[in-house]
């Protein structure tokens, strides 16, 4: 039941070959780059992981591969995004059996459930798994908000422990802290609000551009934690044009293209997604190339006092 809800946790991309099969060699390369940079957890099968296009078997393969690569050094979270309560409970059971350390759980997919139905959904999952749970609260993209009153009801379950806060309302962090103290841990889920969220009391950051820039992402977290705010701000301000690639309908393609430029990924996506093309591709490449041209020299962020 104990889980350390803090630090940088990449929502990693899924690597595919040109034949549309899992590219486990490239996937391993990226996971190792994340671990080397000092990330504090790995999140599998999220939006960036193209979860909606993955089979259950592929998700299991990715989970087992990640556990093989990271061992006990870094916890691994499996995302649960299902259409039915029964399917979510089964997915949680399989994740536990294959070694997941915790779960990130979205509200029901497709059906816009009522508040009562959403609470029942999360409760049913929580009482059917011993794994710690982080609720993904993203009303902007998924059209369902988990309100503070709903969290009040959910927190009767000890294993509901954290929220991936993606409402894009920074003041919501203070509302959560005022109401629940440290009972509900907060991880920012929006790259362009990450440092602001950490400074307002969030314990961690479920990150996107970390997939291509792991060291810079972890450096921002560690610097602000050590009270070196100006140093964190300097990196964050450089990073912002890249971070904005995360708040875009084609965030998967954007971030995979960035991974190509940093040598730890490929552009291969699973249809119906297609790689970027035309003017938008040129715009994204310009953002990436400008970022690389002005890439900051990082301090020794792993050994801060």
UniProtKB/TrEMBL annotation:
It comes from the Bacteria. Keywords: Lyase. CDD domains: DHDPS-like. This is Dihydrodipicolinate synthase family protein. SMART domains: DHDPS. The keyword Lyase applies. SUPFAM superfamilies: Aldolase. The active site is at 136 (proton donor/acceptor), 164 (schiff-base intermediate with substrate). Belongs to the DapA family. It holds the Pfam family DHDPS. GO terms for molecular function: 4-hydroxy-tetrahydrodipicolinate synthase activity. Pyruvate binds at residue 206.
